[in-house]
Design brief:
By secondary structure, the protein is of the alpha+beta class. The chain contains ten helices and 14 strands. The chain folds into two domains: 5-116 and 283-287, Aminopeptidase; 118-259, Gcn5-related N-acetyltransferase (GNAT) (Aminopeptidase).
Length: 289
């Protein structure tokens, strides 16, 4: 039986090596796992070379095992469910994993997790913005450059300036809804534990005043964008921020994951406008015991 305990920031060094053992490119196997740990009551277990994650999506769920023997790991979760009286519900299951599970186990249901698909892009697309597809983005960036020639994008080192920018941003855009409220607190934690979580970031300023903040991390061949907030009083600021962050940190990666839209229509439209190469669909899957 697997023995789980609450996931805490101090566990990051032990858990981080497992992120490189998956080729799913999901944001769920990055520092995001730690940032959302309170919201999803995340627990973990290390056993037989595998990382096991238990979370709460209304009821207890498990992520599929990372590292070690995959099928043996699934069997270990099923045995734990039988011993604990839990249903064998797996969250954030990829399409490839679902095919494997269907070939080896009895799948009772597999429901798409609406609003939680990751938006994956070719890095060169967001760096170069090529062709007619990105005409709108290039136009907004040109407007930004003309209006604000005294702009500067620098690697994030001044956490006080970043927090001051977020304070101003949220004063004008107070979080609305359960997920937005949860995101508000975890963004500040990400700044607090920036080095521990191995983040990269940038602050875009205009005349010395912060106009946008972006933070993420590189895992394998993918740059993940965890934070992207901007002051829309500056015309074209979001398009400029997307491009600058990609240029600064995506040059040695193949993909950029701009993560989920959380069911927010405005975010969905924005993410689609950059022409993702794939939407990484996630499934809530229940196996028979």
């Amino acid at each position: 039986m697997l023995l789980f305990r609450p996931l805490e920031p101090a566990d990051f060094p032990a858990v981080k090596p497992f992120f490189a053992l998956t080729d799913s490119r999901l944001c769920d196997t990055t520092s995001v796992l730690f940032l959302w740990r309170k919201h999803f009551s995340t627990e973990f277990c290390l056993s037989n070379g595998s990382l096991f994650i238990k979370q709460t999506y209304g009821s207890p769920t498990f992520m599929t095992p990372i590292g070690g023997d995959y099928l043996a790991g699934i069997e270990a979760i099923l045995a734990t469910c039988r011993a604990s009286g839990l249903r064998a519900i797996f969250s954030v299951v990829t399409e490839d994993e679902l095919s494997v599970l269907r070939s080896r186990f009895t799948v009772l249901r597999a429901d798409e997790m609406g609003g939680w698909a990751d938006y994956l892009y070719e890095s060169r697309d967001l760096i170069d913005l090529p062709g007619k597809r990105f005409h709108g983005q290039r136009n907004h960036i040109s407007q930004f450059d003309r209006r604000y020639p005294n702009h500067l994008f620098e690697p994030l080192t001044d956490m006080a300036a970043a927090r001051d920018f977020l304070d101003r941003f949220y004063a004008r855009n107070p979080p609305d809804g359960e997920l937005s409220i949860a995101e508000h607190s975890l963004i500040y934690e990400l700044l607090e534990k920036y080095d521990l979580y191995g983040q990269v970031g940038g602050l875009l300023t205009v005349g010395g005043t912060a106009a946008s903040l972006s933070v993420g991390e590189v895992v394998g061949d993918t740059l993940f964008v965890h934070i992207e907030k901007a002051d829309t009083d500056y015309v074209g600021v979001y398009q400029k921020t997307v491009n600058l962050f990609a240029r600064a940190y995506g040059g040695n990666t193949r993909f950029i994951n701009r993560e989920e839209d959380m069911g927010i229509e405005g975010l969905r439209r924005s993410k689609l406008s950059y022409h993702p190469t794939a939407l990484l669909t996630k499934y809530m899957t229940e196996l028979a015991l």
